[in-house]
């Protein structure tokens, strides 16, 4: 991410043209809804309440602003989906929390946020912006890494069989969550996505023997 001047530009001696984080929040929301390519500088300045000179002075470029927006998105929305995952007692509970909390967050039921996941829905890499595309791919990979780490922990704890295909099962959960994001953008309800999560857990049980373990 580019180094950015942390002091916003001042306009003709007035105290401060804008609050940087507030402006960044508005830019993040716009990028989240429209995507990188479809969002123009004019769109951004209108949403942020600043002129283009102030935008460039504070954020350097549209690309650097998008990179900061990804950071802002992560810092302010990650806990909505991941807090329950990290606090869960078992791997199954962690996955259930991840998917159920995703159903709520992705449909805007827990906060005033756009539908879907900004990272999952981003197509910036295929739009010719290689460095930004790599940032997005790295952000997407975090989900897989966290799931694999939790499953390996579960194997060590004897929660799931050592023969479990950790990579495939993690990809399965990640794919379900990504699909939920797309469906949420298309208008799927929280209840519909929660039903998807419940069905996904049946797949989890089949692959890990969790149902038999709970009956025992």
TrEMBL record:
Q: InterPro entries this protein is in?
A: DNA-bd_HTH_TetR-type_CS, Homeodomain-like_sf, HTH_TetR, Tet_transcr_reg_TetR-rel_C_sf
Q: Which SUPFAM superfamilies match?
A: Homeodomain-like, Tetracyclin repressor-like, C-terminal domain
According to the entry, every stretch annotated as the HTH tetR-type domain falls at 17-77
The record's GO molecular-function terms, alphabetically, read: DNA binding
- Indicate yes or no for the key word Cell wall biogenesis/degradation: no
Has the keyword Transport been applied to this entry?
no
| Protein name, UniProt field | TetR/AcrR family transcriptional regulator
- Organism classification: Bacteria, Pseudomonadati, Pseudomonadota, Alphaproteobacteria, Hyphomicrobiales
């Amino acid at each position: 991410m580019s180094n950015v001047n942390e002091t916003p530009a001042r306009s003709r001696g007035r105290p401060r043209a804008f609050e940087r984080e507030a402006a960044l929040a508005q830019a993040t929301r716009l990028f989240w809804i429209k995507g990188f390519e479809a969002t123009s500088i004019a769109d951004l300045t209108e949403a942020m309440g600043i002129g283009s000179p102030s935008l460039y002075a504070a954020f350097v470029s549209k690309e650097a602003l998008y990179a900061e927006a990804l950071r802002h998105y992560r810092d302010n929305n990650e806990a909505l989906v991941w807090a329950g995952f990290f606090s869960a007692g078992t791997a199954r509970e962690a996955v259930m929390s991840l998917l159920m909390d995703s159903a709520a967050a992705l449909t805007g039921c827990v906060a005033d946020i756009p539908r879907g996941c900004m990272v999952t829905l981003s197509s910036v890499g295929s739009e010719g912006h290689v460095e930004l595309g790599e940032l997005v791919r790295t952000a997407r990979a975090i989900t897989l890494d966290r799931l694999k780490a939790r499953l390996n922990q579960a194997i060590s704890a004897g929660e799931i069989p050592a023969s479990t295909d950790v990579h495939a099962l993690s990809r399965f959960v990640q794919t379900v969550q990504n699909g939920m994001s797309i469906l949420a953008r298309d208008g799927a309800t929280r209840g519909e996505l929660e039903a998807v999560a419940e069905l996904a857990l049946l797949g989890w049980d089949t692959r890990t023997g969790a149902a038999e373990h709970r009956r025992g």
